[in-house]
Design goal:
Blueprint (H helix, E strand, L loop, with lengths): L13 H18 L8 H12 L9 E2 L3 H10 L6 H14 L3 E6 L4 E6 L1 H8 L7 E2 L2 H4 L3 H8 L3 E4 L12 E8 L6 E9 L6 H21 L10 E4 L7 E4 L2 E4 L2 H12 L6 H8 L7 H15 L4 E2 L4 E2 L3 E3 H10 L3 H7 L11 H21 L2 H8 L8 H10 L5 H16 L19
Parallel strand pairs: 8-13
Antiparallel strand pairs: 1-4, 2-3, 2-7, 5-6, 6-7, 8-9, 9-10, 11-12
Helix pairs in contact: 4-8, 12-13, 12-14, 15-16, 16-17
Organism: Streptomyces cremeus
Keywords: DNA-binding, Transcription, Transcription regulation
Protein name: GAF domain-containing protein
């Protein structure tokens, strides 16, 4: 096979491959053993699914009812791309008895359109708008795995982790904000064995690229009257500064400096900036001045001033947007704007404090709100998967059939804190148990 992301090489017999994959799926779910011809990308996804305690006989959960779904879709950035998806994929889906699906970055399906009979069949496994198809919820599937890996992927028949999904084949590609690179969701084509071809993956990749271009043109960067700059520092170690129609990716140290100056528009004197940036008290003011000089050259004339150090244009930072929404009680909106911890690897004292404060305030708001969907988003994120307080809150409000899984995860976290000890065995016994490769 020439492309590890394509399910079948040209000329392969789907029927023959299906039988072998079903036996391999049974070997993994019963004994944790990966057998040929399971692709490495699928084997890795199966292991993640097992660690997330996904049941191979489970089903997707509908998290957004019709009223909530309608309002959420209207405000989602991908709503602007839906006319393009329908134009490029609509006829292809109807003629081929396929489905077109678009999900958000959490794996919730926002739109599922296409052949009416296929929609009815898909509805029986909850492949419907409002249902969560994240890999951590339902295991290996094209949209969920594309989001987990942030790259296009095709999933064929028994490569799906859930047995009820074995009759289907799908190909999906992630979608990003063209200005910030933030993951917005994924676009997916789902159908029968005829989709198990390299062309379907290439097709959905091309559609994703066209959609990102469409989003860039429909909401282009523009220079506001006040030359406001935009700073994106959540969920990334190297911040992105957008100003005057240009994008500047910053080094880690320059990212820390911009975060602090955005946090203090009045400016910071050099001695305080030095203390806020460096753990090592032996770092001299000369080192800081050298960094600021390099930053000034990078940003161009006029954007960075000294005495005190400050930015000459207003800065709208993504972390201040989250804080502002939390302050107004808009918890769902704050969660939607939270792309991850602030400069996750930064050890600058002021950044560490700001990161911890923002994360703590958001967690507290989620726990107080007690919304199962929002709490589920948090605990299934990379930064919330080990958050005991959030898991406990979710256990109180999760649907009855989900509570055993949530409580099992809580017990695992408690066990890891007391005596973490890896034990080999069934992939569904504990998080510490990992199937052999």
């Amino acid at each position: 096979m020439t492309d590890a992301w394509v399910a079948l090489e040209p000329g392969a017999d789907p029927g023959a491959r299906l039988g072998v994959l079903r036996r391999a799926h049974e070997a993994f779910t019963s004994a944790g053993r990966v057998e040929r011809p399971v692709r490495p990308v699928v084997a890795a996804s199966w292991r993640r699914s097992a660690r997330a305690r996904v049941s191979p006989d489970g089903s997707a959960r509908v998290e957004l009812a019709e009223d909530d779904l309608s309002a959420y879709r209207e405000g989602h950035p991908l709503a602007r791309a839906m006319p393009l998806f329908r134009e490029l994929m609509g006829a292809y889906a109807r003629d081929g008895e396929h489905l077109v699906a678009v999900c958000d970055a959490s794996g919730r399906l926002l739109w599922v359109e296409g052949d009416a009979r296929s929609r009815r069949r898909a509805g029986r496994m909850n492949f419907v708008p409002g249902a969560r198809w994240a890999e951590s919820s339902v295991g290996t599937n094209a949209p969920g795995t594309a989001l987990a890996l942030d790259r296009p992927v095709q999933v064929f028949a028994a490569e799906h982790f859930l047995r009820p999904v074995h009759p289907w084949t799908c190909a999906a590609a992630p979608l990003h904000d063209p200005h910030t690179g933030r993951l917005l969701g994924a676009v997916d084509i789902t159908g029968g064995d005829s989709l198990a071809h390299p062309h379907s993956l290439a097709f959905v990749q091309a559609v994703a690229r066209a959609a990102e271009s469409h989003l860039a043109l429909s909401a282009p960067l523009r220079r506001d009257d006040d030359d406001r700059a935009l700073l994106y520092a959540l969920g990334r170690d190297e911040a992105l500064l957008v100003t005057g129609g240009s994008r500047v990716r910053l080094s880690r140290r320059h990212s820390e400096i911009l975060v602090l100056l955005a946090r203090h528009p009045e400016g910071l004197p050099g001695d305080r900036l030095l203390c806020e940036l460096y753990e090592d008290e032996s770092v001299t003011p000369v080192t800081l001045r050298a960094e600021l000089s390099r930053l000034r050259r990078l940003l161009g004339d006029g954007l960075l001033r000294s005495r005190p150090y400050r930015l000459t244009v207003p800065v709208e930072a993504d972390f201040t947007v989250v804080a502002r929404r939390l302050g107004s009680g808009a918890v769902a909106a704050a969660m939607g704007a939270y792309a991850g911890p602030l400069l996750p690897r930064s050890q600058a004292p002021a950044v560490v404090r700001l990161r911890g404060r923002l994360e703590g305030e958001l967690r507290a708001a989620l726990v107080a709100r007690a919304d199962p969907g929002l709490l589920s988003d948090w605990v299934h994120s990379p930064w919330g998967e080990d958050d005991c307080a959030a898991w406990r809150a979710l256990a109180e409000v999760a649907p009855v059939r989900q509570r055993p899984v949530v409580r099992a995860r809580m017990r695992e976290l408690d066990g890891e804190l007391r005596a973490p000890a890896p034990v080999r065995g069934s992939p569904f016994a504990t998080v510490s148990q990992r199937p052999p490769s």
